[in-house]
Design a protein that fits this description.
alpha/beta; four-stranded mixed sheet; 7 helices; about 50% helix
Length: about 210
């Protein structure tokens, strides 16, 4: 695939949901049928992660509305929260609300106590995510779909189920991508034998693209 076309396509997928507020729908609907065949999570866990993200977003929005800028990414029932809260009380309350969502096993609350970020800042974060993902594809050190890349305030968060070799390669790519201020590793590192077992596990060829978050 032409690299410029890939970068443009990926940037569009990242930016459009920020305008619409429905990234999980795009991810599940546009690519779910492809990604499920290589995702190291079970189909049940993927479905639970999508449900967790939807419930977290809904509950926090019901409580705070536009007072906060929040993003929720669940991977293997572990939730990363990024964004901004006006004070520490709101930040803590968001974490408490997400911890109360069924099936959540762990919460990593990385919200900053600050005014909501600007559209320009969020666009820049989306561009950094695109660059990191593009470089992961180019590196051929691992399948990029095994790693979730989230960027907030130029800080890159990495999630996924990977081997130590894959983790090291991913971190190196993220750290050497222009514009990245810091890399936070939230990946689950498993022995090579466990990774091979996950990769050999039969997976459904398709998943429903109609499920919304």
């Amino acid at each position: 695939m032409n690299r410029k076309f890939f970068i443009g396509l990926l940037l569009g997928v990242v930016l459009l949901p920020q305008l619409q507020g429905c990234f999980p729908l795009v991810a599940a609907g546009a690519t779910g049928g492809v990604l499920v065949t290589v995702d190291r999570r079970t189909l049940g866990t993927q479905t639970e992660d999508e449900s967790i993200e939807w419930k977290a977003r809904s509950r926090v929005n019901d409580r705070f509305g536009d007072e906060t800028h929040t993003n929720f990414v669940s991977f293997n029932r572990k939730v990363l929260i990024t964004g901004e809260a006006l004070n520490e009380e709101i930040r803590s309350e968001v974490g408490r609300i997400v911890s109360g969502v069924p099936q959540v096993q762990e919460v990593q609350n990385e919200m900053a106590v600050a005014p909501n970020s600007s559209f320009a800042a969020r666009s820049n974060d989306a561009y950094i995510t695109t660059k990191v993902k593009g470089r992961l594809v180019d590196s051929k050190s691992l399948k990029a779909v095994h790693v979730k890349v989230v960027t907030e305030a130029s800080i890159v968060y990495l999630m996924g189920i990977v081997s130590q070799r894959e983790a090291d390669a991913t971190i190196q790519v993220a750290r050497t991508t222009s514009g990245v201020r810091k890399v936070v590793t939230l990946m689950e590192v498993l022995p090579d034998s466990a990774i091979r077992e996950l990769d050999r596990r039969p997976q459904p060829e398709q998943r429903s693209s109609g499920q919304q978050q």
